Amino acid sequence: MKKHFSFTGAKKIIFGNGSFDMLGDHIREMKACRPLVVLDRNLSKTGLKERIADICGKSGVKAAIFDKQVEAEPRLE
Questions:
Q1: Would 34 be classed as within a structural domain?
Q2: 35 within domain boundaries
Q3: Is residue 57 part of a domain?
Q4: How many helices (H) and strands (E) are present in the chain, helices listed first?
Q5: Domain that holds residue 36
Q6: Residues 44-54 pLDDT 10s
């Protein structure tokens, strides 16, 4: 029996020093009005939520940030 697998990845990957600070610019470039950012509890504890809100706010982008009850790795059942 043949198994098939399909994967569609991001069209654009941005990396390098300071690239996270350009988050708001990239969101505006995509013409997104209010992006949804989903963080697990551990990422939320690192201060990333506040950093995302600050960077987006300075760029005039209002991001909806969800950081409640998301497991980092789902259980295999």
A1: yes
A2: yes
A3: yes
A4: 3, 2
A5: 19-66
A6: 889 999 999 99
User: Which pLDDT score is estimated for 75?
Assistant: 73
Alpha-carbon distance 44 to 49, whole Å?
6
Contact, 32 vs 61, CB < 8 A? Answer: yes
Q: Using the 8-state DSSP alphabet, how is residue 7 labeled?
A: -
- Residue 35: name the closest of 58, 52, 13 by CA: 52
- Which residue numbers in the chain have pLDDT < 50? none
Structural domains of the chain, count: 1
Whole-number Å distance between alpha carbons of 66 and 54: 15
Per-residue model confidence (pLDDT) at position 70: 57
* Residue 13 domain flag: no
Q: How far apart are CA 54 and CA 57, in angstroms?
A: 5
* CB-CB contact of 21 with 58 (8 Å): no
